[in-house]
Amino acid sequence: MASTALITGASQGIGEATALLFASRGYNVVLAARQAERLEAAAQAIRTQGHSATAIPTDVKQPEQVNLLVQKAVDQYGSVDLLINNAGIYISGPAEEFSLEDWHQAIDTNLWGYIHTIHALLPHFLARQAGTIVNVGSIGGLVPIPYLTPYSTSKFAVTGLTRSLHSELVPKGIHVCGIYPSLIKTDFLERAVFTGKNEEDLRSRQNQVSQIVGTPVIEKPEDVAKAIWEAVKHQRDEVIVGSANLSAVSNQLLPNLVQWVLRKTFQHKDQ
């Protein structure tokens, strides 16, 4: 019987690419995201290739919706073998300019969204003494990045969540893995939150990220999907994706220099 993967943030970008890849490898895939039409289009694209895909619109910030998502997935396929937590939001600006609502948006999506799915699926995995949890994190959860403080806070928390769960659950037959990319060439800017000292500062930050994402060296969603596949296939604990390796190694060897460069890079009008 085919294994089943539940993937959040699956209507586009990394989540959609991952769903396509795992479906092509024989998995049933359950796609979850907020945008129902875009989500169904992604599922339909998989079905047209002859694979099984189910779209279940879900806001991972809402535990009731997540519980229903898991129940529907188990009812349809009999079990869920793999959880890929990917739903997230990018947020940038000076720390003092973020509202509490901004903070909640970052942490409720990037951290609590992962906790909700894990909380809902963990009893199922424990009962079967089998299962895999993949948390798509960020290099911002390994290297502190100024002017991304709410984002980096949430991603460092995801790193801690992933590593702690891995340590605890390995003896119980459950594998937990963290995936750490840098910025990826996706449509994440549609949902990103930017603040600034003024309107010019805000637009400058938006333009900077847009230009970075447009450079040829930036990885594509398919690169992250392949990293996830390899991590699941080979039971890897952590995978740092592509160019994120340079940031991780540089921060280990020359942390003060890296932080100075990052501050200068993202400072903009914050003098």
Explain this structure.
- The chain is α/β, with parallel strands linked by helices and 271 residues long.
- The chain has one domain: NAD(P)-binding Rossmann-like Domain (Rossmann fold), CATH 3.40.50.
- Helix content is 52%, strand content 15%.
- A seven-stranded parallel beta sheet has the order 3-2-1-4-6-7-9, with helices on both faces.
- The longest helix has 29 residues.
- It is globular and about 60 Å long.
- The termini are far apart.
- The model has no long low-confidence stretch (mean pLDDT 94).
Distance between the termini: 60 Å
- Given helix and strand content, the structural type is alpha/beta
Radius of gyration: 18 Å
Binned, the helix content reads 40-55%
Order of strands across the biggest sheet? 3-2-1-4-6-7-9
How many strand units? 9
Shape: globular
**Share in β-strands:** 5-15%
Largest sheet: 7 strands, parallel
**Per CATH, what is the topology?**
Rossmann fold
Supply the CATH class.
Answer: Alpha Beta
Distinct helical segment count: 9
Low-confidence stretches: none
* Averaged pLDDT: 94
Order of helices and strands: EHEHEHEEHEHEEHHEHH
Please name the CATH architecture: 3-Layer(aba) Sandwich
CATH superfamily: NAD(P)-binding Rossmann-like Domain
Total separate domains: 1
